[in-house]
Automatic annotation (TrEMBL):
It is found in: Membrane. PANTHER family: IFITM1-RELATED (PTHR13999:SF31), INTERFERON INDUCIBLE TRANSMEMBRANE PROTEIN (PTHR13999). Keywords: Membrane, Transmembrane, Transmembrane helix. Its main location: membrane. Belongs to the CD225/Dispanin family. This is Uncharacterized protein. GO terms for cellular component: membrane. The chain crosses the membrane at residues 35-57, 83-106. It holds the Pfam family CD225.
Length: 117
């Protein structure tokens, strides 16, 4: 049993005008593991194996959350998010370069060399 006046993390304690006490418990947002984003990066693009690394960190984040280590879960989740961002940016740049490259190769309006007879 907790001693009188013990406060849990995230609790606010106020006193009303009538002398009563109100305790408000603030729930922290659960850590995000970004598992779906990591799966998409791993299955669809996976540049430089960043998708695989993000997937591993997402799984570690989920394991930490289940074990009750919310700070560790936040840390692993933040790392997974950074890796997912990097993988997504690299994949988008690669797709844009490929589209521009194909468009330049098949462009029928580029100047042709004239042959003289």
């Amino acid at each position: 049993m907790e001693p009188p006046g013990y406060m849990y993390p995230g609790q606010l304690h106020t006193t009303t005008a009538a002398g009563g006490h109100n305790t408000i418990v603030l729930q922290a947002e659960p850590p995000r593991d970004h598992i779906i984003w990591s799966l998409c990066c791993f299955l669809y693009s996976n540049p430089l194996c960043l998708g695989l690394a993000a997937l591993i960190f997402s799984i570690k984040s989920r394991d930490r959350k289940v074990a009750g280590d919310l700070e560790g879960a936040r840390h692993y989740g933040a790392t997974a998010r950074c890796l997912n961002i990097a993988a997504t940016i690299i994949a988008c740049i690669t797709v844009i370069i490929a589209i521009v490259g194909v468009a330049l190769l098949v462009n029928p309006t580029r100047p042709q060399k004239e042959t003289f007879q």
